[in-house]
Fold this sequence. Notes:
Layout: H1 2-19, E1 21-29, E2 39-42, E3 48-50, E4 56-61, E5 67-72, E6 79-83, E7 88-89, E8 92-94, E9 104-105, E10 113-114, E11 123-126, H2 127-132, E12 149-152, E13 158-161, E14 173-177, E15 180-181, E16 202-208, H3 213-216, E17 223-229, E18 237-249, E19 253-267, E20 272-284, E21 311-312, E22 317-319, H4 320-324, E23 333-335, E24 339-340, E25 348-360, E26 368-383, E27 387-403, E28 408-417, E29 422-423, H5 424-435, H6 438-450, H7 462-465, H8 472-480, H9 502-505
Parallel strand pairs: 1-7, 1-8, 14-17
Antiparallel strand pairs: 1-4, 2-3, 2-5, 5-6, 9-10, 11-16, 12-13, 14-15, 16-17, 18-19, 19-20, 20-25, 21-24, 22-23, 25-26, 26-27, 27-28, 27-29
Amino acid sequence: MKKLTLLVFLISFGALVTAQTTVTGKISDNNGVPIPGANVKVVGKSLGITTDFDGNYSLTVNEPTPFSLEFSLIGFETKTSTVQRNNQVINVNLAEVQTILDEVIVSASRTPERILESPVSIERMDIKTIRGTASPTFYDGLENLKGVDVNTNSFTFKSVNTRGFATFANTRFMQLVDGMDNSSPALNFNLGNLLGMSELDVQSVELLPGASSALYGANAFNGIMFMNSKSPFDYSGVSFYAKSGITSQKAAGDNQFVDTGIRFAYKFSEKFAAKTSFSYLKGTEWYATDYKDYYKPGNTRANPDYDGLNSYGDEVSTNMDSTFGLPAGTMKTVSRTGYNEIDLIDYGAESAKVDIALHYRPFANDVELIYNGKIGMGSTIYQGANRYSIREFMMQQHKLELKGNRFFVRAYVTDEDAGNSYDTRFAAINLQRHAKSDANWFTDYFLAYSGALLNPAFGGVFSTVAAAPGNHAAARAFADSNKLNNANLNPFQLGALNAGIAPALGLPSWN
């Protein structure tokens, strides 16, 4: 009896072992060049793997022989081969073919269809195109698509334009990441790939250059872009990338940047698979140090009405002659003293993205339930009508989707925290007004320039603060003095226009 039990156990164990089949090999083109990223799939099953950088693959499945394998990649013909035994080696050569018109897209009609059947023109980047781009990132590579222009606002922030007319932000261009609109609710435009997708997880990018309002609403007037991620059922394993370089600028010196990412994906069974990815970028933005006054060429900081390009707060100005009733041409226009951008902005740029996805196929077929969570945070500079310092910005999105071949039901939520972001122009203006209101500043400037401060009735303090009247530099120094906030030094530090002084000087009562 013991021998019979042992025999049955050995036969069962042998059957179990033989049911597990391993196939290895290499996929190359007709010239013998290895093809990385080619698909190796069990025919009729959602079992498969992709080749490594050298075109090699090793696939282990719990399938009894014989069964068939399908070898494919966009741009190459598809071949099928039969596995007859365990540990069989199958090397395949794929011939290159023009199959671009047979690619499957989802953006044109919201359901999978051949690009040849699409009712609109679509530009597309697939995995092979992304790997072959010479651009630093796949997002930069979008500029190589027909009719697409990528505007570089800063080191980490880029916006896409497809119709030739748009603002820097392009609020009428929609960007969907795995079906979720990743526009910032607070800023009302998408943030490029600052909070988008790791390039390790990108399967394809589809772009409709024209109006797409009928399917996607008014925000898609200038076009729409789909960024589709890889399914852990089809792309499992561990992948990693790292990039580094140096940005060099006279004002900023040499600064290193790093860009790294990692992706984990695992198919637990025919019904359940999961993935997670993380990417991180750090660098230094370009310093803005051009202080020319483009509205008044030839103006320097010594001019009373100076308004520099990257100097903020000096937009606040007034015509002193009309304000204080002086003869035309006496003082003309005077602007407040601005702050240089370099003193207002931290030029450090960072971006971190985390993506988690759980995929469940209850019937082990194309009907799939997906949970997808994306969290992105970072700091950058956005160039629009003004310069925005986006600091410690965070946005997260969570999606639950049920989809099949011809349908999908999707719900997602977006949560955002603007962090310590600010508009540099208004930050400078508010800093000025925190120290002294515009009314008080221009009045102090007028009093110093006109010589009213030499009046003994008000302490005669002008000589201790600045030089003789009629000197714009001296008047500005007096108006900018922080000592005006100290009430212990002089009556003027209470405000030149307090109720007792303004009427005596015949000045307007500003509030």
